[in-house]
Write the structure tokens for this entry.
Amino acid sequence: MKLDNSKAPEVHEVDLHLHTTYSDGTLTPTELVDLCARKGLKVIAISDHDSTEGVAEAQSAAIRHGIEIIPAIELSTDVPDNEIHMLGYFIDMEDTGFQDLLREFRAGREDRGRKMVERLDGLGMDITWEEVERIADGAAVGRPHIAQALIERGYVSVWQEAFDKYLGRTGPAYVERTRLEPEEAVRVLLDNGALPVMAHPLYYEREDTRKLKNLVTSLKEAGMVGLEVHYGEFSGSEIDMLANIAAELDLIPCGGSDYHASGKPGEIIPGEAGPPMSTIEALREMKGVARAL
Ligand code: AMP
Ligand code: ZN
Ligand code: FE
Ligand code: FE
């Protein structure tokens, strides 16, 4: 008898990491919510970079489907030679101080985007800031928008090629922008009443588990409450390793697809990765505690 080692496809009802056209995703909030509904999702977080502007539209679209939307954010932070992305869940979107800060970050993205276009010009690539602006169409400008401009001009054929050749951290057109330190991002989110969760931990460190654990421990001490464990691009053994770290440090295991609708071959689609519904219960419970502090 042949043993069947194939696992039944898991049904995911929760996706806590999604991007829309308000940052560098290519689906509008309505299109994204419709897709999530078709995939059977029940609770999703709209976690654009430096913007909560997609949340209201997502909430309107979600009513039709009986899906719950968690207002969220993804903030990029700086550490030496690396970056850490911090997700925040249950954002208070009426917090004017927080919105002012997001506006500042978006302005910083524009300045940096213009500089990257200049660098590309210096490298002989004739793209203009106006093209990038048109592609971004009012969104928080990200490198994917610049990648798209390079594709449209025929300098590269796919998104990944743009990052590998020019836009990646060590690429010749890469420009830094001012960002918070991770502990500051944790503080900003807690001050808003939101729950800070470290995004895709293995993008920070894949080899040295001890280094990763030390970093996660210090962020937990700063007030971080969760860790992205069930992440689209992580393997089963990587997810197990991260689940162990989360359990050991008493962090809520979160996760999602980080869907951008980038068209990248093999892109993880909403519904293909995510935490169990018990994560939502744990986040809600934590939210109640955080409010009381
Ligand atoms: P930005 O916020 O402008 O720094 O752009 C970050 C976004 O670019 C990420 O959310 C990814 O979608 C994408 N990205 C960053 N680095 C890479 C890379 N090396 N390869 C492909 N995409 C990347
Ligand atoms: Zn992104
Ligand atoms: Fe990220
Ligand atoms: Fe993301």
About this structure: The chain is about 45% helix and 15% strand. The mean pLDDT is 95. The radius of gyration is 19 Å.
